[in-house]
Amino acid sequence: MTRSSPGILDKERTIAGPGFNRWLVPPAALAIHLCIGMAYGFSVFWLPLSKALGIKDAIKCGPDVGFIAQLFTTSCDWQISTLGWMYTLFFVLLGSSAAIWGGWLEHVGPRKAGVVSALCWCGGMLISALGVYLHQFWLMILGSGVIGGIGLGLGYISPVSTLIKWFPDRRGMATGMAIMGFGGGAMIGSPLAADLMKYFATPTNVGVMQTFVVMALVYFVFMMAGAFGYRVPETGWKPAGWTPPPASANAMITQRHVHVKKVWGIPQFWLIWMVLCMNVSAGIGVIGMASPMLQEVFGGSLIGVSKKFGELDKAQLAAIATVAAGFTALLSLFNIGGRFFWASLSDKLGRKMTYVVFFVLGGVLYFSVPGSAAAGSIVLFVAAFCVILSMYGGGFATVPAYLADIFGTQMVGAIHGRLLTAWATAGVLGPVVVNYMREYQLGLGLPREQVYNQTMYILTGMLVVGLICNLLVRPLNPKWFMTDAELAEEKRLAHEKAAASVMLRGSNGGTDAVSPAVVVLAWAAVGIPLAWGVYRTLQSVAKFFA
Hints:
The protein is an all-alpha fold.
């Protein structure tokens, strides 16, 4: 028995008709990415949660209470190191869920994937709220870590394929806009969470549970609006006045398409996998240690006192911690801005050359850090890390367009999902290298201001590996592409029907044209929260410059 008409979540119902404004799709993607991007800012909950029972001071667990026991204990507070495992789970689950369900997403379309993402991410936060209420950490791991992590993966890749198809003339800029939102999510979510916890806190409650509930409900509204705002172009659609470049114009941009099930066996996939893994490993390692590194390297000079870090008193340590928080906020701005800047620039430079810039310039900057630290030049030190973090964000935003160039657009969302396993790997590799090298150097008795030097050289080495892999990327052998018959079958499975939108429209006169005011309102809905997040971040940055 066949259905008379597709359901509201089915891909056929999302095919846009003539007159649809493609600039409505990026704000839909941003609505989802700005919500799931709070994964970056979850550390704002760690300190309050580490005192969930004790409120003013943590009720410490005994030496016999290990990690497994902390999952179930109700008699003592969780350690921050235990809570940090949720952060690791986010990015491991993001990469693995995107890899597992990327193919499904291509077939069912971005709307259904966006709805599932909203249910997982927001539902996971509600389960976490229950975990806080019952003081059961395993519920938080299950809620935000596992279920929320799956929502992260689906939400992250949900707009990739759609945006690339709407903006064939500006692939990098289109994906840069959405992935900028993921970087900006914490910029909105962290201060919002801090304000909510302050509002809900009482002498007997740290306010985290109520904050989880409120944020879950707000995020759900935004994410559902984003999911229902997704539209996909009709087969063969192209922007007015734009003609695709001839196949011979750029050998690195293919006109054909690779099936996702083949990518594990393609050398170019693994080369780009290493490119992303090395770029992210180096950047993510720096993000985690930016604040302590600035404090330990420059010590009292951050507040005009000629003392090393170990010689400072409690009040001075608090003062330089405030300066370091401003430095971290500054890095977050460059991380977000770099996503849009570098991805847009890659439309002009080409994706391969953009990554050459990342690795060569990044390598020089990492290598220069020990020198600027030894010279006591805070300006050069900070400038190097600002540019490094812009290229870290830019690497994420540029890679979907790189994949579309090499593997075609038909299944780029699913292929991007497979590639995100590189992010999951880097999320473990980068911090492990940085943290263990720091401990090792301290164990050798090196002064705190010198313990990061060796790490910078190791990160430079990672970028050299990434550069070599990037230079080895070549156009694909024709044997990897789908045949015409295979492509036709894939289009059938993906419900690509040029006439479907005509069939499904009736009451609107056969057009999907909307008022420019609607486009402005859609952008305002995501732009205003983002502007507020930037404003709050700039307030923190001001403390650094003060």
